[in-house]
Specification:
The chain is α/β, with parallel strands linked by helices. 30% of the residues lie in helices and 29% in strands. Helix 6 links the parallel strand 7 and strand 8. The structure holds adenosine-5'-diphosphate and magnesium ion.
Length: 253
């Protein structure tokens, strides 16, 4: 499924939060979204999932305008793991993840064993199978984050939007989630702060003050001039002696 944004603008009280954003996410592509705090990453993800309407421009799903689609139809195609998602406290982890099945249920297709299987599979994928019966409120920040990702996976979307999904995770689970994202085979738009992690994306979109500053393969986009201009840091590339891979190091400028 192709997700296309055309000239998206979003303003609030006369201020542009996003301006002139055009980009296309190809089927199966992992697009990283990077930019300083307040550059518009979360706003863009909320627009792309249909939670917020653009003031100008439009979003197309396989060429069809999203504005004309019922929310339920959008939810079958696109899931968002928000930056600070909340879930009511008196609920088990399994039931919280089961909420992801909502767009697929109606009077003619009630909850079935297949939905149970989706939920169990999603929990296993984020390494939370053992906590399925726990109360949501007892989870740690990182476990909650993984449960939110499981809920989005249970939604079985063709496009997954993730807003800084590794923020609360320990390093092993950060790597697990990034591996999982890369292996899903669905289109992914992922907002990330760690630029070395962003290097793993197929392409990167760089936001600054609500505008798209660059869009392309990580090695092209993350050049020293852009890192200086957008993030205000000096960057140098180091080579890992073990496998020859490049790692970036950052210094204040
Ligand atoms: N509901 C809102 N009311 C006022 N300002 C907002 C609102 N949502 C976002 N903003 C502002 O829009 C800008 C972009 O925010 P955001 O998209 O959250 O950036 P990022 O995710 O890149 O940190 C910020 O300056 C933020 O303060
Ligand atoms: Mg944000």
């Amino acid at each position: 499924m192709t997700l296309e944004a055309q000239d998206l603008c979003r303003c609030l009280r006369g201020r542009d939060l996003l301006r002139g954003i055009s980009l296309t996410v190809a089927p199966g592509e992992v697009l990283g979204l990077i930019g300083p705090n307040g550059s518009g990453k979360s706003t863009l993800l909320r627009l792309l999932v249909g939670l917020v309407r653009p003031d100008r421009g439009r979003i197309l799903l396989d060429g069809q305008p999203m504005a004309a689609m019922p929310q339920r139809q959008i939810a079958k195609q696109i899931a968002l793991v928000a930056q600070s998602a909340e879930t009511s406290d008196r609920i088990s982890v399994r039931d919280a993840v089961a909420l992801g099945r909502t767009p697929w249920l109606d009077a003619l297709s009630p909850w079935s064993a297949q939905d149970d299987a989706h939920v169990a599979h999603a929990l296993r994928r984020v390494d939370l199978g053992h906590l399925a019966d726990r109360d949501w409120s007892t989870l740690s920040g990182g476990e909650r984050q993984r449960a939110h990702i499981a809920r989005a996976l249970a939604q079985d979307p063709r496009i997954l939007l993730l807003d800084e999904p590794t923020n609360h995770l320990d390093i092993r689970h950060q790597l697990t989630i990034l591996d999982l994202v890369a292996s899903l085979g669905v289109s992914v738009v992922i907002a990330l702060h760690d630029l070395n992690q962003a290097m793993r994306c197929d392409r990167l979109a760089v936001l600054q003050d609500g505008r798209l500053q660059a869009l392309g393969p990580p090695a092209d986009v993350l050049d020293p001039a852009l890192l200086q201009r957008v993030f205000g840091v000096r960057a140098s590339a180091l080579v890992d002696a073990q496998d020859g891979s490049r790692v970036m190091r950052f210094l204040p400028s």
